[in-house]
Protein: DUF2460 domain-containing protein
Organism: Frateuria terrea
Amino acid sequence: MSINTFPTFPGVTWDIKKRSLWSTDVETTASGAEFRTGRWTAPVYEFDLTFAYLSQADFQTFQSFFDGQQGSLTPFYLNVPNDPASPFTVRFVDDKVEFNQMLNQMYEVQTVTMRTVR
């Protein structure tokens, strides 16, 4: 199976936030003492991307890519500039993405979240 790569949009800047997620089990005894154990040996990462401006062509490319991945069903590569661990294998977190048409042929995406795949 071939894995797609999240598209780049020439001349378009985007804001990206990266979060590290860990999973910790916490058990509390009757005396109140806590015992913690980690479930994972490495974090899962989440990325929030925001696009302040997309042209009509960029909008169509983004929407086609999202539809092609069938929302959160299919993983893909995400290249994050200046991150030595890039590219990441990720999925969309949600099965929906919201595009806001600001003006004729001008769009924005407030936030789209992606999560790494193990």
About this structure: The chain has one domain: 14-116. The CA atoms of residues 26 and 36 lie 5 Å apart.
